[in-house]
Structures are given as structure tokens and as C-alpha cells.
Amino acid sequence: MMRVGRDVFIITLFTLVLGFVFSDWVGPYEQTILALCGINIILAVSLNLVNGFTGQFSLGHAGFMAVGAYTSAALTTLYISPEYVSGGVISHLVFVVALLVGGVSAGIVGFLVGVPSLRLRGDYLAIVTLGFGEIIRVIILNIEAIGGARGIGGIPGLTNLYWVVGVCIVSTLALHRLLKSIPGQQFMAVRDDETATLAMGLSTTRIKVRSFVFSSFLAGVAGALFAHYYQYLNPSTFTFNYSFQIVAMVVLGGMGSLSGSILSAVGLTVLLEGLRELQTITQLDLRMVLYSLILIVVMLTRPRGLLGRKEIWEYLPVSLRKGVKKSS
Amino acid sequence: MAEFIQHVINGISLGSVYALIAIGYSMVYGILQLINFAHGEVVMLSSVFGFYVAPYFLAHMDPSIGLFLVVLTVAMVGCGIVGFLIERLAYRPLRKAPRINCLITAIGVSLFIQYFTQLDFVFGAIPQSYPELMSREVYFTIAGAEVSNLQVLVLGLSFVLMVALQWIVYRTKLGKAMRAVSENTEVSALLGIPVDRVISFTFILGSVLAAAAGTLVSTMYPKVDALMGTLLGLKAFVAAVLGGIGSIPGAVLGGLVMGMAEEFTVGYLSSSFRDAIAFAILIVVLLVRPSGLLGKSRIEKV
Amino acid sequence: MTYRSMIKFFVPLAVVVAMSFVSACKKKTEDVITIGEYGSMTGTEATFGISTHRGIEMAIEAVNAAGGVKGKKLKLISYDNQGKAEESVTAVTKLITKDNVDVIIGEVASSRSKAAAPVAQRYQVPMISPSSTNPEVTAIGDYIFRVCFIDPFQGSVLAVFATENLKAKTAALLIDKKSDYSVGLADFFTKKFTALGGKIIVEQNYVGGDIDFKAQLTAIKAKNPDVIMVPGYYTEVGLMMKQAKDLGLKAVFIGGDGWDSPKLAEIAGPALNGNYMSNHYTTDDKDPRVQEFIKKYQAKFNEVPDGLAALGYDAALVLVDALNRAPDFSKKSIRDALAQTKSFAGVTGVITMDHNRNASKPAVVVQAQDLVFRFVRKIEP
Asked: Which of residues 221-250 of B touch C (CB under 8 A)?
């Protein structure tokens, strides 16, 4: 009980302080970058659960994000009358519901996708999840009620940086705690030796599906944040390329390192924005060229990603580490 | 009836294109267990090479099968070199790394080629029209449906290449080495097989096939753009999996089945789901018969 | 990971970040008017962004060469959005809050204009879309303008033309399911065409980027329609026409401004002949303004300008016209001047802003003859 209270306190404190700093001391352009950083952090850490900690390679994360984005947007835009989402306390309560609806629907889709496909391994799983991601997109394209190819606009702009920071902290902390728990250890057991885990009498498929569903849930929440930040959704956002960018974040940061995912999500998001300047100077679109090059080089020189399987504080000298441990 | 026959013919001609590309995927996968995502991009590069060299030859030759073969040869050489470089620079250093790393690198290479080609001084982001290498002629008519020389050519070439490959893989020393490497890389190395060279050769062979596919695709569909390889490559990969990855006749069969499936989905179900059907097939195949139609199943050793 | 390798990673990263923030803080010089542009310079829709950009660039160079607007030079800042909606939001936010642009030009695609327009509206910066034809775009707010006609008009132009000139009773639709432009135009065409007594007998879809349409065309052939309406882009339409000819399809193709590109004739070859498209302007136009534009564009880019280049050019010139009329260069004054644009003679016709901030102007229907589109009919709004 003590622990829960402390968590809530820390989360609230961080959210309020960071949210305040970001919303009031930072310019609007930097804010859009920060919001995108936050959304990408949630996507990266959640994908890391599947790809890094459970050892199952998924390439369809953008599809689950799309499910969350579209269901939550449909809820707030089509089913709830505008007066409830135009601001104030009620609209933020509605938003909590929208976030959960987005997350749960993505989780359900994750379950439906995961149950059949998680029997596959390695490359095959990767390609099947890629396939499901594309199928989800094609289905959205063909639903007229949510705009189809035209996209859906007029989504209330409920996402602010308080929400982004808050969800970011909660999801990362939840993942961190989960991984320390017994079910979390099971994920890593599947990753490290599937056969041995099976021999222990654990259902590896069930463990994998659990990890997949949780990951999809978070992707859905991130999608809901995304939808209510940009206020416009188009199926062309959620292509394979987006999935790939999230994978790149996970791999670059280190598969199996939450802090690595956070660092690389922020790094790559900012880098892509930074390269916009380079483009203005050179008049060439070097962004994706450099982006893919970075990925190849990292794979060749640091195959385990920047942080490997360790968290960033594990790289600190022991004396410093104690201090960090205590305060966390 | 005429409509049905026409759909069958369309399906076969589209399927042979997939088949040609699928062979390249299948071969590389057979040896390295690597989905070479960049394969689709090599197909695209082949069209780009053709786009640049064809005008030089067109100045001296009329559109004919001869011109087609000349451009094809140039594209094959170019793509062979590209394939060699990709393997040497991006995949070889990862030989000992986990397979997922290779997969990620492959995706990276694929995106790199796509966007590098889109740069203004390389090819540019605007689609261009591919020069006419061969004029289309109607060969014969079945129940009102026409079959053209291009369709015959693509189907014929797929089969010729398939037979040639079967010969290389099963009748030559190099092919024997390729099979040995695909069975067990380490033991092959111990037995004195130059593993690196064999893998390089496999990549060159795969890329040469991609070049053939690219030149054919552009002759049939005369549009070149930097992103054309992605979807083609992905569908061809599905075809390879469907046929049983690692199996060359399987790749051809898979390609034809894929072409037909797409054609009939559009013709008799709904064209909205054309792209989804490829993945639906893939998913069903992998879940029901992961080794594909003609593939051998491998049991993972503990 | 060692400290050294961490430094290796973070230092370049920090430099890039710093670069982006520092360069964005450059002081704004007073004697220029900055125009922000966002568009798809790369990606699957790069060709549209590039054409538009060339048109805008040409207009601005011409104005600057002639001394600028009231002694002030125009400065263009362009950002690529890779054809993505969310990148458009970021790009426009940056243009407004970092580069302090006075006005924004963009986008071609309605979906991306719809994503970015709320930002421009929120900051009260006038935005002119050169060629987003979806009606919803300018409905976003009173700072959003366009210099092209809208889909309902183009759809009805095509329907009227098909019924009156081609005497068509039945039509087939072949729609790019991925493109909002295509889906929208098909809708408005269908409404008008059925209202005029026509019938859509078969509807087929494809996805931009496809190269094989024989399946769809075979299914269309079986129904034997009078016309095939393809509200798509030239990138696919060219291949479609070629394959239709191969399949022995006799029906004539009609389509909208998405067809317009010199590349269409190159890709389709002789299969292009006989087909009709509606467009913003025609290269046939004897108007010296149009001929001069075409001549200058060809000299500069070695290519016949397409409709998007012409619209980009007009968007910039409509803006210059408004700047000349505005009492000062505040965003509000520019907006008001834009809203009062009246009978502005552009390359793509005489432009008058209606009260919905849409340009009301005629469309032309042209027919391909010997690989060149020739004027057939002009339809007034």
C-alpha cells in the first residue's frame, strides 16, 4: 500500500512538473516534437516488451496503434456530443475513457492477431505481423464511417503535454514493475530458452500472447494520444514504415533495455526533425537516407544496440548507482 | 467464359513476374535463412539501370528482342555488382549475429536504396517512363482473350531461369557447395568449402534474377519509380513462402498461385482487398503448412 | 557500453539538435516577406509536391526580379512532409512559430491540407492551398484559401461532359482507394451522373502504386460501359490505358486534373489518344500569359508544366496580388486582401474568391490527340 501511494505521488509530481515546464516554458514547435517524442517512447517501450523482453519479433506495431487511434477518435468525434469534449474536467474524464477504449480495442486485436501467429518464430512471425499490420490498414481504408482514405478530421484536441508525460511515465513504470514480477520474468524465460520454459510446464504460447496483448494495449493508448494531438487521422500514417521506425528505436536503444528505448525514441525523433535543417541547406532529402544508414551502421558496429540488455543506470559507477536505486 | 479465360491469362502473366522475383528470395533464404528485404529494391534498380542505358542502345537499334536482351544483360551485370556489394558490406559482417539483426539490417538496406534512389542527382522522386524495348504483338487468341509476346516471354523466361538454376544447384560443384552451406555453414567451412565465396555467388545469382525480373516488369509496365520494388518484393516474398521457401520450383508455383489469387479476388470478389489477400494467403499458409506447398519441413533442434 | 561510445553517440546527436534550435532562432530581417511552403518533395507523391514547388519558386523569382512587393523581397522557406499528414502539422508549426512566416502555401493533397490547416487557423496565419480540391479544406477556418476549383464542381463537370458530349448512359468507376482525392471526386461524379440519368454499372478499386490493372479492366470489359471514369493520378492512369488497349477495351477514359503531367503521354503512348480529362487550364490557350508561363517553365525545367505547377504559380501570384492591395503586411490585412481577391487573371483562369474562400473559375475539358491534350469545352461554374 505504501508503495502504491509513493508511486502515485511520484507520478503525479513528475507529470505536473514536466507537464508544466513543457507546456509553458517551451515554444509550440518544440512542443510538437516533445509530444511526438512522448508518443514514440510509449510505442518503443511497449514494442520492446515483445521484441526485446519476450524475444518475439513483431513488425506490425503501427497497426495496433492505428486501431487505438481510430477507435478512440471515433468515440470522441462520432459518438460523444461536442459539449463533453470541448474542455474542462468532463472532457478530460471522457479522454480517460477514450484512452482506455483505444488501448482495450488494440489489446483485443492484439489478442486476435497474437493467438494464431505467435506459434510462429523469428522471421516468419515478423512477416506475419507485418501482414496483419497491413491488413488492419486496408480494413480501415474500407470503412467509410471513419473516413476511409479521406481520413477523419475534427478530432477534439484533448492531448496536451501533461497527458503525454503522464501516460509515458505510467506505462514505462508499469512495464518496469511488470518485468520485475514473476509474469515478467516468464517473458524473459521464453526469450532466453523457449524449450526450457516449456519443459518447466509453462505454456509459452500463453506467455507470448500475454506479452503481445499488453504491448498492443499500450500501442493503442499511444495511438489515442496521437489521434487527439494531431486531431486528424489518415490511414497512410500507419504504414509499414512507421512500424519500422518503432522497431528501429527498440533495436537502436537495445532490445531488452527500457531506458535504451526511451533514449533512442527521443534521439531518433529529434534527429529526424533536426535533419529537416540539413535538408533546407542541401536541398536534398537526406533524412531517410541517413536514418537507414544509421540503423545499418549501428547493427554492424553494435549489434546489441546502444545499451544492450542493460538499463542506463547499470552503466553508472557503483557509487552513483546506489543513489539512483534509492531514489527510484 | 471469355472473361474467365482472360483472368486466367492475366493471372499467369502477373504470376510469372512474382515467380521470377520469388526465386531470388527463395535462394538467398535457402542459404542464409535471411529474408533479403533489399531484393525488391534490386528489382527496382534493374529498371533504373535499364532506364539510363536503353536510350544509348535505342540510338543504334530498333525495339526488338535483341535490344531487350542487350539491356537485360547490362541490367544483370549492374544488379549483380549491387547484390555483391550489399552482401559484402551489409550482411557479411553479421554472419555470426542473431538472425533478427540481419533482418533489421536488410530492412535498413532496403530503405537506404529506396531513398538514395529518390535523391535528385541519382534518379529522383518523379516516376519516369521506361523506354520501349520490344513492341507488343499478339501471338494467339484463346476464346477471345489475347496472349501477347511479352506474356509468353515472361513466362518462358521464368521457366528457363528456373531450369538453369535447378541445373546449377543440383548438377554443378558450386551448386553442391551452395547446398552444403545451406545445410550447415560451419561444417561446410571445415570441409574446405569457401563459404563466403559461395554466399557471395548466391547473392550475385539472386540479384541477376532480380535484374531479369525488373527488366521484364518495366517492359510490361513501362513506369519506373524508386518505390516500385517494395510492394512487388513483398508479394514475391509471400509467393516464395507460399511455395515453400528454399525451393526453386516452389517459388515458381507460389508466384503463379499468388498471381491467380490476386486476379480472381479482383475479378470476382472485391478489388478493395487485393493487397490484403496476399497477406491473408501468407498467414493461412504459415499457420496451416509453414513449410509451404513444396518446402521441406525442418524441425528445430534443441 | 563504455562512456566513450556513449559520448560518440550523444555528441553528434546534441550537435544536430542544437543546430536545429539555433538555426531556427535566426533573426528575422524586416525587409523581406517570408512565405512558408510545405509539400511532398519525397515519397510516393513526390511528383506533385515538386511540380507545385517549381511553380511557386518561378513566380517568386519573377516577382523578386521585378523589385518585389512594395520594395520588399519575397523569401520562400520550403519543408518536405514526405507525403505524411503528421509531418505536415510539424512543418507548419515550425514555419509559423520558428520561421515566423507571414503566409503559407500548401498542400496539394486535401488530406494533408486538412491536417495542417487547423494549425494555420489557430495561429491566424493565412494559408493558400494551390490544389486541394476537397470542399472541407477551406471550411476549417477563415484563414484558409485555395486557388483551385473544388471536387463537387470538377465531378459535375465530368458528369455533364460525359452525358452531353459523349452521350454516355453507363459508366464504370476505377477508384484509387488510398487517395482521398480519388474517392471524393468519384463520389461527386456519381451524384451528378446519376442525377443526369446515367448509371454506374461497375465500380472497381486499386491502390496508388499498383502496376497491374488487368484484373479490374477485365471485369469492367465484361460489363461494357460507355465511359470509364478514372479519378486517379497519371502515375497509374498511364499504365491503365495501355493495359486497357491490350485487353481490347473500347470504352473511352475520362478523368480529372490528377492525370495532368507530360509523363502521362510517355507512359501510356498511343493508348492515350481519344481520352478526356478535365483540367484547370490548357496548354492550348492562346492567352499570352499562359504561353509565356509555359515558355519560361520549359526554359527552366525542360518540361511542359502540369496543372499543379500552374496552380503553384497562381497561388504565389494571388498572394502577391493580395500583398500589393493590403494596407500593411500584418497577417490580418493579408487575409482580408486575399478574401477580396477579385477577377485576378492567373494562368489557370480568372480567379475570384467566393465567400467560402474557394476560387470560383471555369474548368476545361481536353482530349488527347496525337499524345497532346487539345481543348474541347470550357464549363463555367
From this structure: 221-223, 225, 227-228, 231-232
As for the ipTM of the complex, it is: 0.83
> Distance, in angstroms, between A322 CA and closest chain B CA?
34
DSSP A77-123: IIIS-GGGGSSHHHHHHHHHHHHHHHHHHHHHHHHHHHHHHTTS-HH
Report CB contact under 8 Å: B125, C219.
no
Shortest distance between the Cα of C95 and any Cα of chain A, in A, equals: 9
State the first-to-last Cα distance of chain C, in angstroms, to the nearest integer.
67
> pLDDT digits over A131-173, tens only?
899 889 989 988 888 888 888 888 898 888 889 999 999 999 9
Contacts of B217 in chain C (CB under 8 A): 211
Nearest chain B CA: its distance from C39 CA (Å): 13
Full strand arrangement of the beta sheet holding C359-360: C344-346, C349-353, C359-360
Q: How far apart are CA C358 and CA B111, in angstroms?
A: 39
Of the pLDDT bands very low, low, confident and very high (cuts 50, 70, 90), residue C227 is very high
Q: Chains meeting A at 3+ CB pairs closer than 8 A?
A: B, C
Whether residues C128 and C231 share a domain: the answer is: no
By CA distance, what is C137's nearest residue in A?
A: A153
Identify the CATH number of the domain defined by range B2-288. Answer: 1.10.3470
C335 within a domain of the structure (yes/no): yes
My answer on whether C251 and C274 are in the same domain is yes
Which CATH number goes with the domain that contains C201?
A: 3.40.50.2300
CA-CA distance, B212 to B78, in Å (whole number)? 11
Range of the domain at C293: 22-149+288-361
Integer CA distances (angstroms), C355 to B69, C146, C223, C314, in order: 61, 12, 43, 19
Interface mutation target, options B117, B120, B126, B141, chain C, most CBs of C under 10 Å:
B126
What nine digits make up the cell of A266? 527521443
Q: Exposure of C262 by Cβ count < 10 A (0-12 exposed, 13-18 middle, 19+ buried)?
A: middle
Whether the pLDDT of residue C259 is over 50: the answer is yes
B279 with A293: Cβ contact below 8 A: no
Q: Residue A301: pLDDT above 80?
A: yes
**pLDDT mean across residues, chain C:** 87
Check whether residue C141 and residue C217 sit in a common domain.
no
Tell me the pairing of strands C170-176 and C227-229: parallel
Nearest to C318 by CA among C299, C337, C294: C337
Q: Which of A317-321, B9-13, C161-165, C279-283 has the lowest mean pLDDT?
A: A317-321
With CB atoms and an 8 Å threshold, state whether A236 touches C85: yes
For chain C, the domain total comes to 2
Sort out which chain C residues have CB atoms less than 8 A from A30's CB and list them: 21
Q: Are residues C126 and C100 in the same domain?
A: yes
Buried b / exposed e along A268-288 (16+ C-beta atoms within 10 A) = bbbbbbbbbbbbeeeebbbbb
**pLDDT tens-digit profile, chain B (302 residues):** 778 888 888 898 889 889 989 988 888 888 878 888 899 999 999 999 999 999 998 888 888 888 889 999 999 999 999 999 999 999 888 888 777 788 888 888 998 999 899 887 888 888 888 988 887 777 777 777 778 888 888 888 888 888 888 898 889 998 899 888 888 888 888 998 999 999 999 899 999 989 999 998 898 888 898 888 888 888 898 898 888 888 888 888 999 999 999 888 888 887 777 777 887 888 888 778 877 787 765 544 44
Residue A82 in domain: yes
Q: Is the pLDDT of residue A1 over 60?
A: no
B300 chain-A contacts, CB cut-off 8 A: 121
C227 in a domain, yes or no? yes
Identify whether residues C108 and C166 lie together within a single domain. Answer: no
Does B263 lie at the interface with C, CB-CB under 8 angstroms?
Answer: yes
**Minimum-distance CB partner of A234 among C17, C85, C96:** C85
Total number of domains constituting chain A = 1
3 state DSSP class of C179: coil
